[in-house]
Amino acid sequence: MSLINPKTPKHREETTVSAAEVERYLRQHPDFFENQLDLLKILKIPHPCGEAVSLVTRQISLLRDSNRQLESQLNDILQIARDNDALHQRIHQLTLTLLDATTLEDALGGLTWSLHEYFQADFVTIKIIQPAIESPIAGLCVTPSDAELALFASTLDSGSPYCGKPDHSQAKYLFGGSASNVLSHALIPLQHAGFKGLLAIGSRDGNRFRAGMGLHFLGQLGEVVAARFASLLAGRT
After folding, report:
1. Do 54 and 117 share a domain, yes or no?
2. Are residues 71 and 123 located together in one domain of the fold?
3. Which of 26, 68, 172, 219 could covalently link to 179 via disulfide, CB atoms 3.0 to 4.6 Å apart?
4. What is the pTM of this model?
5. What is the model's pLDDT at position 101?
6. Burial of 199 (C-beta count, 10 Å sphere; 0-12/13-18/19+)
7. CA 190, CA 129: separation in Å to the nearest integer?
């Protein structure tokens, strides 16, 4: 009887797969683990804190962080939307007040009241440059040649609102005895159909009107005020 030696199994060549190849494969097949649930049970990845957590746990953690960030962004967007809606409502109320006015003096009083009531303005000043009119309101009208208008030349020439901290000369000219209390102000040029003027809103809060802040609302406000004043002056005898 002969002894038959068992066949020696053939050795398979070992194939080395790099981490980059594994990563590339998983990126190309993100659903790979859907059919490898048992593998998910044992798969571990290092945690930044040094602990080992399952891939599923880590993914859930990342998703929760992402959801929290998205929720925070959504809340910010909603708050901005609510603020804008409230702002438009206040502009609407101010516009109605101006439309109700039948004289320039009534419109000036309504504007000042509305800015205090709806926008919490601390100080309000209006200067009419053109046309030349007579008014019982002291200091309301100035001539285009008024030397102190040079303090606001850049704003008047640009036609765009300006926000920031007033220098002493500007505050003194606009707000008189209250100048020292004005820590920030908004300058709004008024121009419409031959009417030209300047609306100044002062605040005791140095951060209320900041350089670089959005000026869209102030531009709209200036357009509404200038249009209504021009309309009232056009029918003035």
Report:
1. no
2. no
3. 172
4. 0.69
5. 94
6. buried
7. 9
Angstrom distance (rounded) from CA 74 to CA 93: 29
Whether residue 1 is contained in a domain is answered as no
According to the model, what pLDDT value does residue 83 have?
79
| Confidence (pLDDT) at 105 | 93
Segments forming the whole domain that contains residue 92: 33-100
> Cβ-count burial of 136 within 10 angstroms (0-12 exposed, 13-18 middle, 19+ buried)?
exposed
**CB count in 10 Å sphere of residue 227:** 17
Question: From the CA atom positions of the chain, what is the Rg in Å?
Answer: 35
Distance in angstroms (rounded) separating the CA atoms of residues 198 and 190: 5
- Which parts of the chain have pLDDT scores under 50? 1-9, 11, 237
Residue in 121, 183, 180, 125 with CA at minimum distance from that of residue 152: 125
Helix (H) or strand (E) holding 208: none
68 assigned to some structural domain: yes
Within 90-161, strands assigned E span 123-130
Question: Do 165 and 84 lie in a common domain?
Answer: no
For residues 105 and 136, is the Cβ–Cβ distance under 8 A? yes
* 149 and 47 inside one domain: no
